[in-house]
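As described in the Methods, two query proteins were run sequentially through the folding procedure within a single session, without resetting any intermediate state between them. The first query and its resulting structure tokens are shown here.
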Amino acid sequence: MPSLKLQELLRTARTRAGFASGAKATGPTGPGWAGLSPAAKAFFIASAATADPRRDVVFAVVPADRDVEQMVADVRFFLGGLEGASPAQLEQVVFALPSQEVDPYRGLTPHLRISSARARALYALAAGHGRIVIA
């Protein structure tokens, strides 16, 4: 559980950065977001998930599979800091949706870890308890 001081610091940073008003449809890769670092984009995604309670799911796409796990870890950190959630709670709302990493038309099956992560994310979306998905 993050400290109250960290929560206050992140909420102030969210307001000063302009993330408190909610994410626009263009997201962090639009013209105004092009210069953000990956950690700042993770902060934007976490802020978008907390800014609008009516929002069902925040879905973010990163450039490569190697970036998925790092972005998930960063988003979980910032979301936990903003909401005061525990790591166990964050695992139930932030999910990775990695690519299959194999050509499905060649008859090859993806690694079990990849299939499990994809199934977990898709189930969370279908069940309605996933708030953030990073693909």
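Immediately afterward, the second query was submitted; its sequence and tokens are:
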Amino acid sequence: MKLLNNFLIMVFILLVGINEIYAGAGNRTGTGGASQLLIPVGARGIAMGSANAATATGIEALFWNPAGVAKLNNSADVMFSHMDYIADIGVEYGAVSANFEGFGVLSLSVKSLSIGEIAITTVDNPDGTGRTFSPQNLIAGITYSKQLTERIAVGVTANFVTETLADVSSNGVAFNVGVVYDNLASISGLSFGVVMKNIGPKMKFGGSGLLIQADAGSLSRPPQFYSIESAAYELPSTFELGFGYQPKLDEMNSLLISTSFQNNNFSSDEYKVGLEYGYNNMFFIRGGYSAGPQNTNDFIYGFTAGAGINYNFESLALRVDYAYRDTDFFDGNHIFSIAFGF
């Protein structure tokens, strides 16, 4: 009973901060910023419909719920992932996690977007000046996770966000905090997870690109520059509740069922479900579905599918995963991940 009470207190603390998030709705779509924070990483979780708030474990849980990282099976894990995102954008991701006995798990992660070159246009040259620029979006995170008891795990992530567009840039920090409770209500295999993501102060752009030349025609002084102050924008905060259930089958076969509900500060709510079948803890087949309101265009994803292979050498655990995510208006997303455990 005391264990359950402690968990409920943690959940309550997370729920206290949800008021601002629930103030968001579909009518705020497009008014936030730093949307790269919402781009998922990791083929396993994406293949399961991104419904992994309660079931993601180890280094793969860094994006979904930092509490799940506490369930690291190895002394250290390294993970790399690539996604063919929409509009020919590539998403590159790398992470490392280390388990320190008695302290917890520390993790570092980096995510970047490969957008390519964009032609510079002006009022006088609407077809282009012949010059180009390449937008840069980078997220570097540090995560601390700890298994408090056999059932309760907690985690917190600090993400440092930077966006650069030609001669302007913006920097900020976003926090994720999550809790996972296993064997909920003393039911073996039933997990519950809650996570708040992208909580932090507003960001704003600045730089030489906001300098405007002013001519003082009636004064005896040369032209001067003044800076335009850009409006601050909020982070795309989310709140997610998830359940997972892993029934006992036999030694050779496993099944994982995962569901979650996600409330978004700047878009409509999402409902997710995912399944994973495993054979001999080596071969895995996954599928999932994400749904949003049908009368809006701010949700373009649907069915997902994928597969994975786990293979343990004498001192090395290798995991290779692939996922496909169906997308409206654009080509589908292809995601590849590889992880090493030591």
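Residues 2-341 form a domain with the Porin fold (CATH 2.40.160.40). We note this only descriptively and draw no conclusion about the first query from it.
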